[in-house]
Write a structure and sequence with these properties.
28% of the residues lie in helices and 18% in strands. It contains 11 helices and 15 strands. The longest helix has 14 residues, at 61-74. The model is unreliable at 314-321 (pLDDT under 50).
Amino acid sequence: MKEITELNNLLSQYVDQGFFPGVQWQINFNNKIYAGKYGLNNIDTKIEVLDDSIYRIWSMTKPIVAVAALKLIEEKKINLNDPITEYLPEFNDLQVMVQEDGVVEEVEKINQFPTIKDLFLHTAGFSYNFLADPVGKQYDQLRLFNSDTTTLEEEIKILAKAPLLFQPQKSWRYSVSMDVLARIIEIVRGDSLQNILQKEIFNPLDMHDTAFTVSLENQHKVMASYEYDPIKNNLSELISDPQKIGNYGYPLHASSYARGGHGLFSTLNDYAIFAKMLHSGKSDHGHQILNADTLKLISTNFLDEKYFPIEIATIGIVKDENYVNGLEAYGWGLGCRTLLNPSKQHNLGSVGEFGWAGAASTYFLVDNSKKLSATIMTQVLFGNPNLHRDFYKYIYTNF
């Protein structure tokens, strides 16, 4: 394993300037691994980033759940055009919110139920608690995904009580749709999401430190979660207030806990193994996770022009002349973003590059045209996006 001093120095500046407690990264290029780490796992205890530090990966849970769903498609146990009500009858009475100039007027009947494909693509009409729209506010009122004691089944039944933000396939909205898809996976497989992911993905890939819970003996390895305070110019630790991290619905250890859109813990090495698998669909030992045709569905854009540009509007990214890797250049495959137009991001990247990020500033990409995958880990909620920008720029100017 080779450490790239120049890249480590570049990323370490963000730690030295107080934006992140520590960073850890890995690049796999032509079956050669380059890696580095810098900083602290916990600012208060001064514990340094470990080789096997554990991270809350937030929305980087989604691509893993997508792979589990794609396996069902490959096995012809679900179909992209299946309405979600075929598996989840609690959505039979689903309605759609009607807005006029941002003001909620009423609800109306649904024209067609969301499909499995809509769940993958975020075109179902669901929203998210943190997004500034009326449906997101209803999710907050319902305390949706704000508990660390509810099961996925219970949460989806709560979700079914809220209306959609728009008629299915009318627009694009980043949403809880992967949680709905995860519940469908549980129903079709007849098992818990944790057991399914363990059996079908984690065990075959030797991802031994990836799960929805962290054992007591490993909890000291979990990087503390932080928020950046731009006024005080420092990091405040989320888990110093247990209720605050509880409100994000992300417990260290809760036996019934599982989510489709967030919730997994992982290490850099584990997630890098998963990212590398997305080159071929196989583990290093030759274990088939997905076949080649199914694998292409992840990097193939399924969105029509009417959906562009896609954007997660409420996350405050500064779009200056150095802005790279926003969603304007991207479409969406079955599971994550996929690059369509590198010219919209300073001609960096390759068409078909795909990947995603997590709310606490974790990030990964896969570029099969270069036989390259890369992962970076840290733990700051909605942290400085320039960390990802510089990581991405370094990769595409040096590999």
